[in-house]
Known about the structure:
Layout: H1 3-8, E1 32-34, E2 44-54, E3 61-71, E4 75-77, H2 79-87, H3 96-111, E5 115-122, E6 133-137, H4 142-153
Antiparallel strand pairs: 1-4, 2-3, 3-5, 5-6
Binding site for substrate: 77-79, 96-97
Family: Belongs to the GTP cyclohydrolase I family. QueF type 1 subfamily.
Protein name: NADPH-dependent 7-cyano-7-deazaguanine reductase
Amino acid sequence: MTERNKQTEGLTLLGNKKTxxxxxxxxxxxxxxxxxxxxxxxxxxFNFPEFTSLCPITxxxxxxxxxxxxxxxxxxxxxxxxxxxxxxxRNHGDFHEDCMNKIADDLIKLxxxxxLEVWGKFTPRGGIxxxxxxxxxxxxxxxxxxxxxxxxxxxxxxxxIDNR
Length: 164
């Protein structure tokens, strides 16, 4: 078995031409594969500009771009499974902050990364936008301190609503 085949063994969504979209939150959609570059630290970043969820009170749709960045350890998230997982929030009723924390928790559980951040930039509704930011650094590593510093300084230059 080649290194690439070992790396993708067990993935069920990548290359599957019969993709089924799940309309209710489902963390079991997430799949991981081996990081073959464990000899160095590096960032992987995903931008998901089509995130939707529902307000748990009004059932009105909320729209956001989700930014996920992480430094992998032994495992990485497979991108198609991540897309389908994020899509599964479509009919999920939760506050913006709770959605971002769920995403972070699910990715930490899946991969046990060295570092992870999830930032939701939601479209304004009722004249206000909510942009929750969640991060994590593996305890007992340099990434724990990076997470603290990044959280403390992540929004030093706030954007204006017209430059989103």
